Description:
The complex is a heterodimer. By secondary structure, chain A is an all-alpha fold. In chain A, 66% of the residues lie in helices and 2% in strands.
Amino acid sequence: MTPLLASSDPLFAHGVTGVVILIVLIKVLVGFGALMGAVTIMIWFERKAISDMQSRIGPQRWGPFGILQTMADGLKLIAKEDLVPAEADRFVFKLAPYLVLIPALVTFALVPIGGTLHIAGHAVQLQMANPPMGILLMLAMSGISVYGVMLAGWSSGSKYPLLSSVRASAQMISYEAALGMTIVTIILATGSLTTHSIVDVQGGGIWHWNIIRLGIVPFVVFLISITAELNRPPFDVVEAESELVGGFHTEYSSIRFGIFFLAEFMNTITMSAIIVTLFLGGPAGWIPNVAHLKWVFPIIWFLLKTTGFAFAYVWFRAALPRFRYDQLMDLGWKRLIPLSLGWMLIVAGFLIAPAWGFLMASLVLLSWILLSRAFMLGQSRESGVEAVLPTIGQRPIPGAVIRRLTDGES
Amino acid sequence: MSAVAYAVPSILIFATAAVLILVGAVGVIALKNPVHSALSLIMTLFGVAIAFVAQSADFLAAVQIIVYAGAIVVLFLFVIMFLGVDRRQHANVEPLVGQRAFAGVGVVITVAGLIALMAKAHWVTGAMSVSTNGVALATGQGNVKQLGTAVFTTYLFAFEATAALLVIAVVGAVLLARRERTLQSDEVEV
């Protein structure tokens, strides 16, 4: 196992000793604590920012500016009665919250939050883990978190959560394709799967950041898909309270509901951090020449960029109305997937030679014209005469029959 | 090939993976509820992923989770939920007459064949890979590179044929799903 680990993380280059295990433990504990603290602040920040945008006051009672409100809510949730519905599948019902929480935690472990430190002769990368499969692990984890949402809805033994979970699984799987395609573009440009190298190649100033180097398109596709993957507004049909009562977690109460809530905000932070890592150079930024403190500035840059995206998510929620389900699917399948695929081909072409790049671009343009023609045909056909199914049998039910059925006359 | 001395950690990893795979596989057929079976299948897939990592095929391990656990089993669950077959099934009725007897004979033949093969052939070679003449796969980036080179040179035809097969399957599925509705016998009367 050691060569596999050492192939991407220099910490394991000299074998796994006690000191190495201690360093890893400290990294994990600090990372976990930081993430938990960040979630607490994020929940407060979202409520406060939303209330400002909606001309409300928001939480204000606990602590200065209500910053301890999250703690109070957490205590309240733990103290509440933990209900399991009679119709529920008890084992899966109890398992589901953890299937949402654990992927959120594991994904954050991949994010590089700073440069490399040298402690006691060991090169310590400021990220919890840097496995060789790197960013693919993030895709795998977002695949696992689908199960949490899906099984939570199914195991509740209730109609609306089931509807929500079917929506959720369809939505998350659809957008995962566009997400994967964008990540392939980044991997192509980086030449490596690890998050550390993805950040490393973006280190040489703002023109090397993937957002600019790859053209703005992959960034936009990624931002939209990741918002859909998070089930956050404007893509929160999974929790559309006007249609589904509350979404997949309607039947959950007490700390189990708390875990879903926690995981959602944790995911928001983690995905902001992943966007920063993939497109904005992660901890890259201007470093002033201060002795012994040079390692602090990358962390500050990383935190600033991540906070920016976290705020953007709050802003989305306040500003954008929810997508209808069919619009959501149209956007995913008909626009984002072809766009990300085409852009990936163009980037791959330009990586070989400019001539190939232009060839690919013209091919993509051609297929785009064909595809949009096909969509147009499909749409006109849907609204055309032949799309309307002929009435079958005696439907709609004649009024006399309905009256007989409902009034109980026979 | 001579016998390879295995270190304790790799034996532990193998044992973990094997237990996950076997328990999951037994669960798939033994559990009554289809959703539990699907969950058990995920456990097996994770076991296989661990086995891949132990063979230093870390890219395959990630793809295993992304494709199989992340997409295919989700589709299984999707179908189970949509069709509403997520309640306990009674397995007392045999759709085909003598199905169980045939299944039993099939199992006996397969197991006998496996035992015969194991007795005759020398399976445990200690080789880490077939394609690289017994040398272990390169870790990290090299892993992806080896796989990519193999797929796009040596096995290009098989790769393209698979791609064509999948496209045909998708087109077929769309055609089947879009077929025109015909009058159903139970829909005539109210």
